[in-house]
Design brief:
The chain is mainly alpha-helical. The protein has one domain. It is 80% helix and 2% strand. It is built from 8 helices and 2 strands. The chain is globular. Keywords: Cell membrane, Membrane, Transmembrane, Transmembrane helix.
Length: 251
């Protein structure tokens, strides 16, 4: 595999993560309220929150596998690009990691103990962390452009689009709509990733490791990629079927 092939793989891995985890982020951001038929908002009851989290729950771990794989490619194949990105957007990257950890903690801990105070407290953490995670991810993309204005704009776009994407995936999983809205929001959420990859392409490819090392890592990729694809197929099968009671047991 040459530098161009690795860059394409990195883009695909990041795109896979934003589609899967973007639905979780958007659902987390709107966990406490939803739009009603009159166009306003109403507060979700605890049982409803479990249902919407169960709708996107199967996407959480497979999505994080895509992210870990993308980080591995960035660090292992494009170390200069990774160092440049961290130098430019270190505070954003730290915020992203912290909000990622808190978001996951909120998802897994909200139902581990009885009591409304415990659950509602973690639900607030989950909402705030989901919004910050989406915004910091968009800002990190903007940092790759080397522009503070791009970081601000893409941060806002990421928060808005992830909310739309989460709503679309939940509506599809609950069979309120067909898959088309989720497909449209998937394209919307991937567009900034592709645009950033195109803009950063010359610097990314030029900052790769030696061709010999890329070829050696290519062997590892051929082993890891089938596992990632298998998890993607599993996630798709879980989401494509109707939501059942067991899907909400862990949330």
């Amino acid at each position: 595999m040459n530098a161009a092939a690795w860059a394409v793989l990195l883009t695909v891995l990041v795109a896979g993560w934003v589609v899967l985890d973007g639905a979780v982020q958007g659902t987390g951001a709107t966990l406490l309220q939803e739009r009603d038929h009159d166009g306003g908002y109403r507060r979700r009851e605890p049982a409803e929150r479990r249902v919407v989290l169960g709708a996107v729950g199967p996407l959480l771990l497979p999505g994080e596998v895509w992210l870990v794989a993308a980080i591995g490619v960035l660090v292992g194949v494009f170390p200069h690009a990774e160092a440049e990105l961290l130098n430019t957007g270190r505070p954003v990257a730290i915020t992203l990691i912290a909000s990622w950890v808190l978001r996951d903690a909120g998802i897994w801990l909200r139902s581990r103990r009885p009591g409304r105070i415990w659950r509602d407290g973690w639900d607030v953490v989950l909402v705030v962390a989901s919004i910050v995670l989406a915004g910091s991810w968009g800002a990190l993309l903007g940092a790759a452009w080397g522009s503070g204005l791009a970081a601000l704009a893409l941060g806002i776009v990421a928060v808005v689009v992830t909310r739309l994407h989460g709503d679309a995936v939940v509506a599809w999983r609950l069979r309120r709509t067909g898959p088309l809205p989720a497909i449209v929001t998937s394209v919307m959420i991937v567009a900034p990733v592709v645009g950033t990859a195109v803009a950063a392409w010359p610097r990314l490819v030029a900052g790769g490791i030696s061709p010999e090392a890329m070829a050696s890592l290519g062997i590892v990729a051929m082993v890891v990629l089938p596992v990632i694809l298998a998890l993607q197929v599993l996630a798709w099968r879980l989401v494509a079927r109707p939501l059942g009671r067991r899907d909400t047991l862990f949330f």
